[in-house]
Amino acid sequence: MTPPLRIAVLASGRGSNLAALIAARDAGKLPVEFVLVGSDKASAGALRLAEEAGIPTLALNPKSYPDRTAFDRELFARIAASGAELLVLAGFMRVIDGAVVAGWEGRAINIHPSLLPRYPGLHTHRRCLEAGDAEHGASVHYVTAELDGGPVVAQARIPVGANDTETSLAERLLAEEHKLLPAVVGAIASGRLRWNGEAVFDGRPVTKPLTLAQLL
């Protein structure tokens, strides 16, 4: 029997995507072992969720380090020491030093609330509405030195309604994120999604983002 995939999660906020991953594991749908949940904010709700689930936690204060690189090196050293095989960025609101993250090529993914390459960075829902887009979505991509610029492996899409606000759009999209991220992690855990210098799904290169239906 294949052992569960050891994963670490980084989050800066309440941890709703972490909660979705934990729920999928508890439901027997996600063969993973959480070895660490880390944050740059000691008050992050994600850390409380992890503690309640019996998952080891780590909070590092960026202000305690001389610069961003020093913080990132310490953070990633601790992640490596946890034995994590996959790093999941689930609402981690910091740009990671390119040289540091390079050592995790193909072993780190991020979920971002836009249809990348549209709207990297912050305020994605506002930017979508301001542009008059007909649809919005979320993307899961491999992490590279470029902000939200790594290869996209999966996306979920929702229509933008005439009466949508930033809040309503965010809420509807979050429900899709909570399905998409566990599905991608599950595909990695099962070996269906692999990194071989590029993303490969079921033995074929990922040339366009996978859908939730394909992943399940």
TrEMBL record:
Protein residues bound to N(1)-(5-phospho-beta-D-ribosyl)glycinamide: G15, S16, N17
Residues the record lists as binding (6R)-10-formyltetrahydrofolate: R68, N110
Name the EC number(s).
2.1.2.2
Q: Which organism is it from?
A: Rhodanobacter lycopersici
- Indicate whether Signal appears among the record's keywords: no
Q: What does this protein do?
A: Catalyzes the transfer of a formyl group from 10-formyltetrahydrofolate to 5-phospho-ribosyl-glycinamide (GAR), producing 5-phospho-ribosyl-N-formylglycinamide (FGAR) and tetrahydrofolate.
Q: What GO molecular function terms would the record report? A: phosphoribosylglycinamide formyltransferase activity
Coiled-coil ranges per the record?
none
Name recorded for this polypeptide: Phosphoribosylglycinamide formyltransferase
The superkingdom listed in its UniProt entry is Bacteria
